[in-house]
Structures
1.
Amino acid sequence: MFLSIRDLYVNYGKFEVLKGVSMEIEEGKISLLLGANGSGKSTLLKTISGLNRPLSGSIWFQETRLNGMASYDILRLGVAQILEGRRIFPHMTVVENLELGAYSRRNKREIAREIEAMCERFPILGKKRKEQSSNLSGGEQQTLVIALALMTKAKLLLMDEPSQGLSPLLVNEVADTITGLNKDGLSIVLVEHNLRLGLSIADQVYVLENGKIAFDASSKDLSGVEYAQKIYLGG
Ligand SMILES: Nc1ncnc2c1ncn2[C@@H]1O[C@H](COP(=O)(O)OP(=O)(O)OP(=O)(O)O)[C@@H](O)[C@H]1O
Ligand SMILES: [Mg+2]
C-alpha cells in the first residue's frame, strides 16, 4: 500500500481529535478528505507530515513507518504538505521561494534547472520571478505554494484547502493545476471545503466524523456525495 494509516489517535492535551482513524490511500490517486469544521482534517494531514505526534497507531508510507520520524525526514521521503492558508515567504522573491523548496538538496545547478522548469510549467511565475512574492495575486501565490511543494520532489502531496479565499475563476485554475500534477504521477490527498471542486477532481472520498473515517467510497459513488452533503448541510 502507498499510504496506510492504522488506528490513529491524536490528542491536543486532554482533547481527543482523532480516535482510531484507519485509511488506505492508493498511489496515483486524488483522495478527497471531507468533514465538518473542527472534525480533525488539518490535524490528520499534519500528523501524516510529522507536524503533530500521534498518541498511538501507525502511518506507513510505502515501506517506511512515518510516525516517530522528524518532519524534514518525512519531506525527504517525498511527503510534502501545503498548509491551510498560503504559506510562502512574503518578503522573498518568487525564485527565492522556489530555492527554499529545494533546501534539502545541494546541487546548485540542478536546483537552478528545476526552477527554470517550474517557471515554464507555470508561466505566471516565470514572468514574475524577480517580484517580491507578497505582490502576487491570491491565485498567483497559490500557484507559487504548489510550485514550492513540487520543488521538494514530492511523491505524495497533502493539500489543505488550496482554494481558500480564491475567486471562482482562480478556483478552476487550482483544480486544473491539481489534476495536471496528478496526471504527471503525483498522488494527492486533498482537504477542500468546496465540494463541487473536490468531487469533480477526486478519485476517492473519505469522510471524517467523530474522530474516525465514517465513510469511504469512490467519488463516482453517489452515496458518498449524499453523505458528504449531509455532513456539510447538516440535513
Ligand atoms: N494546536 C491545537 N491545540 C489545541 N486544539 C487544537 C489545535 N489545533 C486544532 N485544535 C482543535 O482540534 C480540533 C480539530 O481541528 P482541525 O484544525 O484539525 O479541524 P479541521 O477539520 O481542519 O477544521 P476546519 O475545517 O475548520 O479547517 C478543533 O476542535 C480544533 O479547535
Ligand atoms: Mg482545517
Note: Residues 89-153 form one domain.
2.
Amino acid sequence: MGQTAAWGYHIYHSLWAGLDWIFPPTCGGCGQPGTRWCADCQTRVIRPREPVCDVCGVPREIAGVCDGCKSSPPHYVSLRSWSVFDQPVRGALHRLKYRRDMSLGDALAVALNEHIRSLGWPIEIVAPVPLSRKRLSERGYNQVSMVALPLTLMCGWGYRPQALSRARETRSQVGLSREERRNNVRDAFVAQPSIVRGRVVLVVDDVTTTGATLSSCAQALIQAGARQVYAYTVARALARHGLKDV
Ligand SMILES: [Zn+2]
Ligand SMILES: [Zn+2]
C-alpha cells in the first residue's frame, strides 16, 4: 500500500471503528453482537472451487477457457469473485443493500483485499456498477460503493464512481435466463471517455450470475477508450443455486 493510499484508508477505517465504539456492531453474517464480521462467519465463507475458467471465473473440471467464453467472449479480460453467493455472505450483502452498513462493507473489503491482490491485475482505476437513477433515489446510496471504496483505498487505486452511468432503465435480472439477461443489459451503460481513456479499469459489483452486466459495463468502457477492463464481485451465484432468485 502506498503512503497516500495507506492514509486514505486509515482515515476511512478509523471513522467506522470509532462509530463501532459508540454503537457496538453486530455481525453482518449471523447477527452475533460485538463484531462486524465474526470469526465463525469468516470460516464459513464458501470460496469458488478451483480450477475456474480463465475468463469468466466459473468453476470447471480443468483449467482453461469454457465453451461459453470461447463462443461469445465477454468484453472483460477476466472476472473473479471472492465467494459463492450463499450464507453467510448472502446475508451480509443483503444487509449492505438494505441497511447501509458501511462498517460491514469495510470489514468485507479487508477480506477481499487479500484475494484481489493475489490476482496480480494491473488495475489503475475502479468503477462500481451504477444503479439506475430510480433505484438510487429509492435507496439513497449504491451498496456496491460500501465495499468498492474501502477496497480501492486499501489497494491504492483511483476510485471513479462517475466512470459509468446507466444509459437507460433496465428491469431486474432476477428470474431471467442467460440469453434474456444479456439482452436486458445490452447497451445499458455509458462510460466517460475523459475518465477512462487509456486506463486499465476494474468494474466492481456485489453479485454476478452470468457476468452479463459486467460484460456490458466492460463494453461501454472499451468503447469510451479504456485500455483493458477486469471485473470483480463479492459473490458469485452458481448454477446449483439457480438463476431465478438472484
Ligand atoms: Zn457471524
Ligand atoms: Zn468462461
Note: Residues 3-241 form a domain with the Rossmann fold fold (CATH 3.40.50).
3.
Amino acid sequence: METFDAYKKQVVDTAQSLTRKGYLMATGGNLSVRLPGGNAFAITPSNFDYFKMTLQDVCVLDFNLNVLEGALKPSVESAMHAAIYQARADVNAVVHTHQVYASALALINSPIPTLFDEQARFLGRAVDIIPYAPSGTNFLAKTIAKHVKNHNNAFIMKNHGALIFGHDMERAEHNVEILEKSSLAYLLALCSDKPISKIPLAVREIAFAKLRKDQKKVEQGIMETGGE
Ligand SMILES: [Zn+2]
C-alpha cells in the first residue's frame, strides 16, 4: 500500500515548481516533508532530474536513515533533514536550495538583518549564516541542528546555499521566495554603500511573536499542516 502518496506528491510537485522558478538548478538541492506520526520523512532521491521524478522515486526514511520505501539512493543530505526534524518539532517541510542571491550572501558572510515585515513574520528575526561543513557529512548535520534551534525559518549555509523551513510544504515554498527577494534587495542595498535601514525593533518582535505562536500551535498539533 502506498500510504504516503499525498506526501510524495508534495515533494515531486514542489521540486518541479522550484526548478521552474529557478530556485533549484539541475539536480542541485533537495527537499523533504515530515510524514504523519512524526518520525519519518519523504525526501528527493540523490542526483535525479526533478522533471523525470515520479512518486515511486521519492524515498521514505526514518530518523536513523533506514529506507522504508523507495528503490533509489536518498539525497546525500538526508542526515541534515533528519537532524532538523528532530531539533524542530514545528518544522514539517525542509527545502535546501543553491538559490543564487542567498548563495551570494553566503560568500561574503553577510547575515540578513530584518529588512521587511514579511521577512520577520515568516523567516524569523534574521537570516543567520551557518558555518561551513562539507556536504553530506554528519558534521554538517550536527552543525545545522545546533543553529536551527533559534526558531528562525531560513538560514544561509556558508559557501554552499540556503536552508528554508515551513510548517507545511506550501509555506516552505513561499519562504524560499521571501528569502530570495530579501537576499536580492539586501545585495543591491549593500552595493549602494549607503546606510541600510531595518524595520523598527518593536515591529520585528510583534511579527516574530506571531511566527512563534504558529510554531507552538504546530507543535501541539492544533495547526493544519496541509498533509492531505
Ligand atoms: Zn547543497
Note: The pocket of zinc ion is lined by residues 29, 96, 98, 135, 160-161 (CB under 6 Å).
4.
Amino acid sequence: MGNPLFDLTYGLFVLSVNVYKRDNACIINTAVQVSSDPQRISISVIKANHTADMLNYTDDFTISTISQKATFDLFKRFGFQSGRDVEKFEGFDGCVRTKNGAYAITEGTNSYISAHIEQRIDLGSHVLIIAKITDMQSLNDDPSATYAYYHSNIKPKPKTDASKAGKTVWRCKVCGYEYEGETLPDGFICPTCNHGAEDFEKVTL
Ligand SMILES: Cc1cc2nc3c(=O)[nH]c(=O)nc-3n(C[C@H](O)[C@H](O)[C@H](O)COP(=O)(O)O)c2cc1C
C-alpha cells in the first residue's frame, strides 16, 4: 500500500531532438499512443529540461523505446545530466540519425518512433505534447523495460554509508539522489534528474 500514483505502469524512452544542428536527448517515462487514425503519441516533458527548451524550436522528435538490455550507463548519459552542460552524444556510437534529423538510440532499445508535433499543452511543471507519427522502425525483439523493471533490475541499489547510519535522508526514487534532513524543502527539485518533491521518499539509514 502506498501512493496510487506509484502503481501506474510506464515504459521508458529516450526522447531525442535536433535543433539548429545541435543534438540532445533525455530519458522519459511518459510516451503513450493516444490515437490510431491518425497514429499519434503523447509525451510529457519537464519544462526545466533542456530538451523541453529545444522542443520550442522544432516540431519534430524521435523516441527510442528502452529494452531490458539497457544498462544504467544509458540512464546516466541521457537522464542524469543536462544538455545545457554536456554534449550527451559525444563519444556515443549507439545511435543512428532518423529521417527527421533527430537521433534514434540503437543500443539498449528495441524500436524507435519519429513524430511531428501537433499540440503543446502547458501543464505547469510539464509540457504535454501530442504528435503525429511520421516514421517508425523495429530494431529487435528484446522486451521493453518498464519503469518497475528499471527500479528492480537496472538502477543500482543504494550503498549503505556507515558515516550516515541513523540519519534521515529524502531519496529521489528516480535517480537515487539523497537530500540529508528531516524535512524536504517545499518545491524541492532533484538537482540530478529534475524530478519534484513528490518523487522523494523519506528513509532512515
Ligand atoms: C527513469 C527516468 C524517467 C524520467 N522521466 C522523465 C519524463 O517523463 N519527462 C521528463 O521531462 N524528464 C524525465 N526524466 C528526467 C530527464 O531525463 C532528466 O532531467 C535529464 O537530465 C534532462 O536532460 P536535458 O536537460 O538535457 O533535457 C526522467 C529521468 C529518469 C532517470
Note: The helical segments are 50-54, 72-79, 147-154.
